[in-house]
Amino acid sequence: MTLTPTPVMDAHVLIQIELDGLTLYYADQHLSMSNGQFYEGRLLISTLQRAFSSFTAPKQRASTLTITLEDADLTIRGLLQDYTWGNRNVFVYVGVGRDIADYTIDFHGVIKFPGGIGFDRTEVRIELRDARNKDKVDLPENKYWVTNYPNLEDGAEGTPIPIVYGDWSFLVHVPIPVTCIDTTTNQFKIADHAIQDIVQVYKNDEEVSHSNEDLDEATFTISSYDPQNDEVTAVVKGKVSGGLIENPSLVLRDIQLNYIGISTDNIDGDSYDQLAMDLADFKCRRYIADEISTDTLIEELAIENLFDLYIHDDKYTVKNRIPQVNIDRTFDDTTIISGSLQVESDPEGLYANRIKCNYAYDPVADTWQSFAQEDNEAIQDDVLQVISRTIDFNWLYEESNVRALAAHLIILYSRAIDVIKFTALGDGILTQLSDRIGLTYAHYTNRPLLVREISKHFRDMSCTIYGYDSIQHILPGYWVDDDAPDYSSATADERAKQGFWTDDDGLADPEDETSKQSVWW
Length: 521
Prior knowledge:
Layout: E1 11-19, E2 22-27, E3 31-32, E4 38-39, E5 43-45, E6 47-54, E7 57-60, E8 64-70, H1 75-82, E9 89-96, E10 103-111, E11 117-119, E12 123-130, E13 138-139, E14 163-165, E15 176-177, E16 179-182, E17 187-189, E18 195-203, E19 206-208, E20 211-214, E21 219-221, E22 232-241, E23 243-244, H2 248-260, H3 269-278, E24 286-288, E25 292-293, H4 294-305, E26 307-312, E27 315-320, E28 329-331, E29 342-345, E30 354-362, E31 367-375, H5 377-383, E32 388-392, H6 399-413, E33 418-424, E34 436-439, E35 449-457, E36 462-468, H7 492-497
Parallel strand pairs: 28-34, 30-32
Antiparallel strand pairs: 1-2, 1-9, 3-4, 5-8, 6-7, 6-35, 8-12, 9-10, 10-12, 11-12, 13-25, 14-24, 15-22, 16-17, 17-21, 18-19, 18-22, 20-21, 22-23, 26-27, 29-33, 30-31, 33-36, 34-35, 35-36
């Protein structure tokens, strides 16, 4: 690489510090924005790192950031005396030009308290914690107490009232535990929310009729019950919001909005709607009766359904990890700093040529009902070794869903994933987590790389990017409708995703040598 990259012209970092009754506006230099707001040039920021926990944990991990404000004139220290700063919001914007609409919120932090502020003769340093750290709770929230249920069965006091998602009657009935909340009337409670249906009640594994069904309260009664000798269970369709909540995107939205308490203003609704359509054929269910963090519930949901959850422009955003070949930004020798590019093969040790799946959990028996396995036998024969990865599906239960995911994973993991690390200038500073980027470099040219980690160095407006070469390897061609576009008129993304009939030379378009890509498998 012979050229010397330069930072993108007119790129800037802005911050807004929201104190009680006062908002402070600072930037890396004096800036008058087109909306009339002036940002005073006091700001120094070193590096902001944003990353997913790992390739297999598709939830963005929390970041921290330290900002420095020039204060030789003691202005900031005067404000420290006059206002409360601890736990106040700070927004960091990155963009180009003078129009605030061309800036995105790269970080939303709160000022650490106690101990988040320090200073010397000329500078004030402020340590920020990720504002999203608070976005988690333990579920279930509520418990059975005799103050609420005076005739509660023995042993139930203090146990969580379950949360139940999904259809437990699909194909094979899977009963879930219920609790007798009134031993004088034999009334039972299923969940801590409204449910869609009580399909069947069982006593000691035998079907029994039930009465006084109340779906809003998730309760019913049976004619007889001996707390010492009888076990009562029920097959149900769980939590509702308009309809049954079973689509992965709807489950995620329900947990975030109704349990964690995230505002609808802080989620990117369009991305959630798109994910719901992308995963329209996927169904989830879960019986939550033991205390568990929403962080764990959401991470398992994202892993099993192949989507990423991250913050973009201060909103929770989701993106399907099923491959797309569109590229958001391309880097070449005019933007990549010489000598910075490194390639590491499978740094997380993800390689596997056998995927084993446990799914369809039975909460009464406390075991998995079903098992599946996908092998890449050709690779196993080639490397003379079977390397297995086992995945427990806590949300997915339908065989077709599990096997579809296993098929993707065996293609992905049976080839070591390259991670390409490089430092770039130019418009690289505008790159976001989960972007698809392209390189003009060796055999990676025009291969979409998935950004799983990025460190933005604001002092010189450079960024270090970790791009995972994980997209091209999970692009089987799919059967499509008859009206799907032919190869010559298909977009790059459609060409990558759908299958095409070819001529005897393997060309989908005889006039296009690059169309030799279809393989029957």
